[in-house]
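Q: My collaborator sent me two sequences in one message, no labels, and asked for predicted structures for both. Can we handle them in order? The first one she listed is below.
A: Yes, handling them in the order given. First sequence, followed by its structure tokens:
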Amino acid sequence: MGSTSDKISGVANQVAGKAKQAAGKATGNDKLQAEGKGQEVKGKVQSATGKAKDAVKGVVDRI
């Protein structure tokens, strides 16, 4: 994946994860809440990966 697609996927996963957590909390579904937290964390990692790729590309472009 490119840096942009990593960042977009990351944001999408964070939003979906937060929605799952809210739905799990509202319904008392601990499993759904946990899945949402996992998806949110995955999204944060994807976003960070995209930002890191941008940083590396910036350094390489300067060389």
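Q: And the one she listed second?
A: Here it is, processed independently of the first:
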Amino acid sequence: MTGGDVATAGAGVPGTLLPVLLGLAVVVVIGVAVLGWVAERRRREALFAWSVDRAWSFAPGDPRLVDLLPGAPFGRGHSREVRTVLRGRWGSREALALDYRYKQTSGSGKNRRTRTYDHAVVALRLPVPLPRVHVGPESVFDRVLQAFGADDIEVESHDFNRRYRVEARDRRAAVAILHPRLVELLTTVEPAEWRTDFSSEGPVLVSWWSGALEPAALQHRLVLLDRIVASVPDWLWRESGGEPEAAPDRAPGP
């Protein structure tokens, strides 16, 4: 704000009040910043306590992970950062969770704007790589694209097809992974607030959502991903070069 702007904004405000109002504005800005810092510190402390309870490692970041996978949310924008990293085991599987941030700039000159995007990412290592299957919440924009012929793999559940969009190069593998029991899990057990993108990306099954890691959401994602891996049909593991695992909720073969 220039001197002229201050004068204009302060027109009609008694001279003795203007410094007070400006001082209050500064206090509010500082207060908001302090509250944000306190909330972030408490969040990290909660994640650290969660990791200690489960014998996981905790680190403030790792630049080697900024391009962890070829798919979203990685590889977007600029100024990419991994700001929190948790590593450990979930049952018999290696697991990883992290806070991922990137920025995107649009416009130029006075209209140049930079926006920051934060994502929480959780991943489980697979016994062998599976064909890529991506499942994410369906938006109005997705429905418009489908009306113009965009591809979307559908299953025998109207509720699932209405809520989710499925993309895969191998339709047979996608249908095999999204068998009826998993579809029911994602449409009935999976709360709407947790419905986020997840996909098989080579040797890992990964899930991500907008925002930052929180212990409750992290644990929920790990449980869901573990159930997805455990339910992969035996024949798909064999076809992908691996061996089936002993799991009570695995889908039958074709």
